[in-house]
């Protein structure tokens, strides 16, 4: 297969640059202080950072989580995780209810969740293997009516526990954001490593492009992408078009 004409490549590169510059302008138009803007902190960052603080306080890092599992405190882990998430506007209400049914009201679900969570965050193998195992755990949790294994449920606890590593994924928003940023995400609706790897690559691209604004972690990157793709900011995007 012959390579595309030089003029075509140049035009594509210009379109990518144009759309990414527009995304940056939109963000700075809304939050002139960038990632340190007071309104940005209040609207987007502080409540997510508070969730991480609570996680560290109630569940802790690798050593503390391991000790809780060794002591058989699966329900404590599951209950704390669900409680920390439930006070934030992260999951949809039907996802919150399905999750509580799966991991708080079921001893079997609590154990599967707690052990699977540790394996995803700190277990053996590469990132791809750990993510696939974790997605499998979530798919296997007990369910009553609503399915549990949505992209938000699969990714929310990693983003709370390790915000420097993991990204919270809302499907419609991430697809819109990737399109606005001229990034070929190749999204798949069933949670899997191929798509999540693409999302992490999008995050790395955004972080490199915005390095001068000083993004601190994936909270800042997810918030930037949220502004590009969520219904919450649709009016601002429309007025900036």
Which descriptors would you attach to this protein?
241 residues, 12 helices
How many DSSP E strands?
Answer: 0
Task: Summarize the main sheet.
Answer: none
Order of helices and strands: HHHHHHHHHHHH
Gyration radius over CA: 19 Å
Number of domains: 1
State the helical fraction.
Answer: 55-70%
Oligomer: single chain
Mean pLDDT value: 93
Number of alpha- plus pi-helical segments? 12
N-to-C CA distance:
37 Å
Shape: globular
Give a structural overview.
By secondary structure, the protein is an all-alpha fold. It has one domain (17-240). It is built from twelve helices and no strands. The chain has helices at 6-30, 38-58, 62-70, 74-86, 93-103, 107-122, 127-139, 151-161, 171-180, 193-209, 218-229, 234-240. Helix 3 runs antiparallel to helix 6, helix 4 crosses helix 6 (107-122) and helix 6 (107-122) runs antiparallel to helix 7. The longest helix has 25 residues, at 6-30. It is globular, with a radius of gyration of 19 Å. The two termini are 37 Å apart.
